[in-house]
Amino acid sequence: ATLYGFRQYTHSLAVFALCITGGIFFTLLISLMKTLVLSLSLLFVVGTVTVSAQTAQVFKITSVSKKGEGKVPDFSWVENGKSKSFTQATKGKVTLINIWATWCGPCRKEIPDLISLSNELGSNYAVIGVSVDEASRFNTVTSYVEKNNMTYLNLFDASKELAEAFGGISAIPTTFIIDTKGTIVQKIVGARSKDQFKQAMVSIK
């Protein structure tokens, strides 16, 4: 009887131990699953923000302020309900401003290189496209930018006010290379390759 009771006791202990172990394992499993769900949720949010930041869009220029000789004009636009300016957006950056239009063949030809360049360059550089299409073609410009995934900043200068503030544009494409202090370092008339644009930008100290 004593032996039988001992066996029953040890069996009960074993069952109890298994229950405790199983409970701990189940708790750990639930905790792990919660962590995994949270991580996936954060990954989805980050991914959504990243895609949103790279969405191809066009913004209308709302104001232009001409600066001194050899300086880039300051100009503003409204983005997501907030007014932004060239000076604020490009502070401390070497910037390429490309004046173009959807009807311009050479302009369209160099756009893939500008897209590639904007993706390659780091945070110390910026690429901005400025369309001088007629005011009635805003939707056309927007469709073109979206279709070609032009994810660098694109602005619409229907009034040609910005082009005039640069001293007038005789032909397009015309590209300006701007240093970190807002000085126009180079004016390029006509299409160029990505390597030529890149060299012009990275050579600025």
Written overview of the protein:
The protein has helices at residues 2-53, 86-89, 105-120, 138-147, 161-165, 194-202; strands spanning 58-65, 74-79, 82-85, 94-100, 125-131, 153-156, 174-178, 184-189. The chain contains six helices and eight strands; from the N terminus they run αβββαβαβαβαββα. An eight-stranded mixed β-sheet has the order 3-2-1-6-5-4-7-8. The longest helix has 52 residues, at 2-53. The chain has 205 residues and is α/β, with parallel strands linked by helices.
Q: In summary, what is this structure?
A:
By secondary structure, the protein is an alpha/beta fold. It is 47% helix and 23% strand. The longest helix is centred in the first third of the chain and has 52 residues.
Assess the beta-strand content as a share of residues.
15-25%
User: Total number of helical segments?
Assistant: 6
> What structural class do the secondary elements suggest?
alpha/beta
Strand order of the largest sheet: 3-2-1-6-5-4-7-8
Unreliable segments of 5+ consecutive residues: 13-19, 36-53
Topology summary:
Elements: H1 2-53, E1 58-65, E2 74-79, E3 82-85, H2 86-89, E4 94-100, H3 105-120, E5 125-131, H4 138-147, E6 153-156, H5 161-165, E7 174-178, E8 184-189, H6 194-202
Parallel strand pairs: 1-6, 4-5, 5-6
Antiparallel strand pairs: 1-2, 2-3, 4-7, 7-8
Tag the structure with descriptive keywords.
single chain, alpha/beta, 6 helices, 8 strands, 23% strand
